[in-house]
Amino acid sequence: MSVQYPTIADCVGNTPLVRLQRLPGETSNTLLVKLEGNNPAGSVKDRPALSMITRAELRGDIQPGDTLIEATSGNTGIALAMAAAIKGYRMILIMPDNSSAERKASMTAYGAELILVSREEGMEGARDLATRMQAEGKGKVLDQFGNGDNPSAHYASTGPEIWQQTGGSITHFVSSMGTTGTIMGVSRYLKEQSPAVQIVGLQPSEGAAIPGIRRWPQEYLPKIFDAARVDRIVDMGQAEAEEVMRRMAREEGIFCGVSSGGAVAAALRISKEVENAVIVAIICDRGDRYLSTGVYDPR
């Protein structure tokens, strides 16, 4: 009998949705978190990374052996490095030099080449350099910020998974906003199932530096972002996000990154305002890629 074994690409998605047991306290609400760190390359970005490359292949925009270029703050870069390794592409990633050592090492482990810009140039500078390199014929920019294949991946997988896993009972969806692909795709799907579902986006408070989420200047706002798809935006401070992140590990056994701590912190705020709600937050990655930054050092 012939057995069809999966490839690593087949393991992207279908991540667990689990209930928080201690952080919510006494409440009539159910708080659930989707463990996207269980994806093969360790984050929610595995979904759009594979989608952007696969769909570009199907359109004939790229073919194995081509050079791909992308600006990234971390998780997308790691996911794209994995996807490029699976598919046989040369991958050049451009990122701010203050990204964690674990992130840089993970990208190069998959064979990607790194170009670092200064912290002052930031993601805006990285995006500008990627555009210049493409204009100079050095490769093809996938452009997670303007590529419809990014939110489409979440419309096709993340959203349906959440709807199915909650039995259609979800009332609130909470997600950090960086490229905004996750919240755009999931919002579109969930609103088609039930317009009453509240979509809550997370952005950093002024002065906060939470990896993976941004308060974009207007001229750099991702083209895939549609403000009409977000019902509420929560400003999150760094201290609150980091504290809830550490509590997630200590009290729930869930080891996650800072933006995930912020998403859960926002879900806890919402839980204090409502009753009999089913609140789902995205845990976009795992905490082990932040250890060198000191956020988990004993306090």
TrEMBL record:
<dbReference type="InterPro" id="IPR005858">
    <property type="entry name" value="CysM"/>
</dbReference>
<comment type="pathway">
    <text>Amino-acid biosynthesis; L-cysteine biosynthesis; L-cysteine from L-serine: step 2/2.</text>
</comment>
<dbReference type="InterPro" id="IPR005856">
    <property type="entry name" value="Cys_synth"/>
</dbReference>
<keyword id="KW-0663">Pyridoxal phosphate</keyword>
<comment type="similarity">
    <text>Belongs to the cysteine synthase/cystathionine beta-synthase family.</text>
</comment>
<dbReference type="Pfam" id="PF00291">
    <property type="entry name" value="PALP"/>
</dbReference>
<feature type="domain" description="Tryptophan synthase beta chain-like PALP">
    <location>
        <begin position="9"/>
        <end position="285"/>
    </location>
</feature>
<keyword id="KW-0028">Amino-acid biosynthesis</keyword>
<keyword id="KW-0808">Transferase</keyword>
<dbReference type="InterPro" id="IPR001216">
    <property type="entry name" value="P-phosphate_BS"/>
</dbReference>
<dbReference type="InterPro" id="IPR050214">
    <property type="entry name" value="Cys_Synth/Cystath_Beta-Synth"/>
</dbReference>
<dbReference type="InterPro" id="IPR036052">
    <property type="entry name" value="TrpB-like_PALP_sf"/>
</dbReference>
<dbReference type="InterPro" id="IPR001926">
    <property type="entry name" value="TrpB-like_PALP"/>
</dbReference>
<keyword id="KW-0198">Cysteine biosynthesis</keyword>
<protein>
    <recommendedName>
        <fullName>Cysteine synthase</fullName>
        <ecNumber>2.5.1.47</ecNumber>
    </recommendedName>
</protein>
